[in-house]
Each structure stands twice: as C-alpha cells, then as structure tokens.
Amino acid sequence: MISDSFIVIRELKIQNANALSSAFTIGFPAMTAWLGAVHAIQRKFNEIECFEQLEFNQITVACHDFKLHTYKGRGDYDWSIVGTGNPLTKEGARPSFIEEGRCNLCVSLIIGCNNLSRFDFDDFETRLESILHSRTKVAGGDILEFANIEYKKPDSENEKQKLLYSLMPGYVLIERRDLVKASMENGDDALDAILDHVALHNVCEKTESGEVSWSIKRKTSGWVIPIAVGFQGISELVEPGKTFNQRDPSVPHRFAEAIVTLGEFKMPHRLRFDDAFWHYEYRKEENLYLCKNFEGEKE
User: Does the pLDDT at position 211 exceed 90?
Assistant: First the structure.
C-alpha cells in the first residue's frame, strides 16, 4: 500500500467509545472502528469539489491513555461494567437496557493519503477540524479535543522512522495472527489458540533451600491481546432494501460475524514504519471483510 503523504492527528481524546469490540471481547476498540472512522472522514471530503480525489488508504493507531468503564467493589471477585442511568419510563419504572462496555482513550493517528498537496493543506486542515469537532464519532465515542493536525511527506526511511518515533510515549497496535496460526498447527482450534496466549498462569517454584515463590507467566512475552479485525459473511449478499429493518436500504446487505485474532501493543521504536499500518482487504470468494496489518502479514 503506497501513500504519497501522511496526515498526523495527535492526542485525539475520545469519550465513551465502544469497548465491546466483538461478541466476546472487551477492551480496545476494534480495528474496523478506526478504519471506518477514517473512511467516513474521507467520504465527507470527497463531497467537496476540490477534494474529490482525496484517498485515505492506511492508518497507524498509537494509544497514549486508556480507561475502561468498569467497577470492582470491596470483596467482589469479578469486575462489572459501568452502565448508563437511563431515564425512567412514564410509569416510573426502570427501563430495560443492554450492557454496553465503554471506554475513554487518547490516541494519535497517522493516516496515509493520496492526492493531497502541501498547498491544499491549510484549507484541508480547517475543514478537517470542523469535521472532527462537529460530525464525527470514533468507535461510537465523542471527540473531546485533539492537540494538532500535521502534514508530513517524508523523503527517506530515516524521516519515516522519525515520524513513527514521534508517537512516543504510546503503544502501537499490530496484528499477531502468526501466534494463532502456530497454535492451530499444533492441534488447537482458533478459540483455544487465542485463550492460550492471553491466559495468566500462576507458577510455583521451590528453591534448594525449600523456599517457595509464586510468579505469573504467559505463554508469549509482550502485551498480547485479542482484537477484532473484520467480518466473515454468513449469508448471501441481498439486493438493497430487501432486508427488513436494514440500517441503510441503499446498499446490498448480508449478515456477518466478527473475526477475532491476536494483536500486540508495541512501542514505536520496536517497529519499522511500514509495519505499523493497517488497511482494508476484501476477499470476495471467501466472503471476508478484513483489516490487515503489514506486520501481521509476515507469516
């Protein structure tokens, strides 16, 4: 994936983002949410005459701060999701609700783009600030503020690395599909492979003097987490407007399930510039709608 320039949005603070990235994972928002938000911004720009050819084709997400809305009281064994206080019904009863995991976070984004020149950047920056402040949600969350927007066109690998290093302190999310694949080759199914790498094991060790020490270990070193990276179509593609209660009746529709794999947060100085980026990939024959990471493609 080739980009001729990059847009950097620094310290983007988001409130009440969706932390339920799939049916059985909670934490950092799904990569579909980040790529979807950037694609939505591109579509808004494409409606403007002078930015009709603008294209955002890849992104890097660096997390600086993260707060999951959970609570654990004194003596509680499990954490609980902090829910919303919905207004009472007209009968004065508490309305039914669905638990929704939410989070507050601060991230920086590097967006790879094409067809944007430095001469157009002042106008672009003004319009992007307006879009971010007024009309854009990220993973269902509201944008509170951001530090600044920068235009970068690095001419060498050294300049690209400096741009990536400028995201510190922070952690860049990459894909670790290779860990899942290795476990499945040893006989595990996909779910067992993911659980095996995120499980914490209490290990007891006894020294020669008879002293006992306990430690917590994981199968793989590093900050490895389960992440949602796309969707698998589970029904046939139906013509627009033919599905009851379809959200957007102007586009084809199909039912899909979330695809979950492993990811890892790494400090930027441990990555090559290109390995930090994510992009879309559609596999028509397999009904797969994927968010792919360059580092994760190294199998």
Answer: no
Radius of gyration, CA atoms only, the chain? 22
Q: Looking at per-residue confidence, does 267 or 296 come out higher?
A: 267
Its CATH class, for the domain covering 5-70+100-174, is alpha beta
Tokens at residue 127, please? 């319009």
Read off the DSSP letter of residue 238.
B
Helix (H, G, I), strand (E, B) or coil at 91: coil
Instruction: Please tell me the distance from the alpha carbon of residue 100 to that of residue 104, in angstroms, as a whole number.
Output: 13
Band the pLDDT of 35: cuts 50, 70, 90: very high
List phi, psi (to 5°) of 254.
-155, 155
Dump the DSSP string for 3-68. -SEEEEEEEEEEEEEE---BTTB-SSPPHHHHHHHHHHHHHHHHTSGGGTT-EEEEEEEEEEEEEE
Whole-structure pTM value: 0.86
Three-class DSSP category at 174: strand
Output the six-digit token pair for 113: 């783009």
pLDDT at 12 over 90: yes
At residue 283, the 3 state secondary structure works out as: strand
Cα angle: 197, vertex 199, 201; to 5 degrees: 115
Return d(Cα 112, Cα 6) in angstroms, integer: 5
CA distance 29 to 21: 5
The helix or strand, by DSSP H or E, that contains position 194, with its residue range, turns out to be: helix 190-198
List pLDDT tens digits, range 77-104: 887 778 777 788 888 887 777 778 899 9
* pLDDT reported for residue 279: 93
At residue 36, the pLDDT reads 93
Kindly tell me the burial class for residue 267, based on how many C-beta atoms sit within 10 Å of its own C-beta (0-12, 13-18, 19 or more). middle
Indicate where the chain has its CATH 3.30.70 domain(s). Answer: 5-70+100-174
